[in-house]
Amino acid sequence: MATGETGFDDVTFDLISVQYHSLKAGHDYGQYVRDAENAGLDDISQFFRQVMKEDSERAARCHELLRQVSGTDQAGPATR
């Protein structure tokens, strides 16, 4: 949601939220990979692996960005 929708403007919170959801989804996708493999659906298994990889990369990028804004005024009120 945009700031106007929540009334809360905090870049750190936003990054942590994206990171959390990416990591959570990656965990869930592991089960999806197993389900597809158990069903013998290699194309679908590969799709889920790709999606899992993308979420892992997204979470890592959030981590980098959190380091970048940590301790700055741009980070938002959660770090003050």
In a nutshell, what does this entry contain?
The protein has helices at residues 3-6, 11-38, 42-69.
Keyphrases for this structure?
mainly alpha, 80 residues, 0% strand, elongated, 3 helices
Secondary-structure blueprint of this entry?
Elements: H1 3-6, H2 11-38, H3 42-69
Helix pairs in contact: 2-3
Would you mind describing this structure in some detail?
- The chain has 80 residues and is mainly alpha-helical.
- It has one domain (12-70).
- Helix content is 75%, strand content 0%.
- The protein has 3 helices and no strands.
- It has helices spanning 3-6, 11-38, 42-69.
- The protein is elongated.
- The chain starts with a helix and ends in an 11-residue tail after the last helix.
What structural class is derived from the secondary structure elements? mainly alpha
Rg result: 16 Å
The count of helical stretches stands at 3
Q: List low-pLDDT spans.
A: none
Secondary structure: helix percent = over 70%
Q: How many distinct domains?
A: 1
Q: How would you describe the shape? A: elongated
Sheet of most strands:
none
Beta-strand percentage?
under 5%
* Mean pLDDT score: 85
Distance between the termini: 22 Å
**H/E order of the elements?**
HHH
Count of extended strands: 0
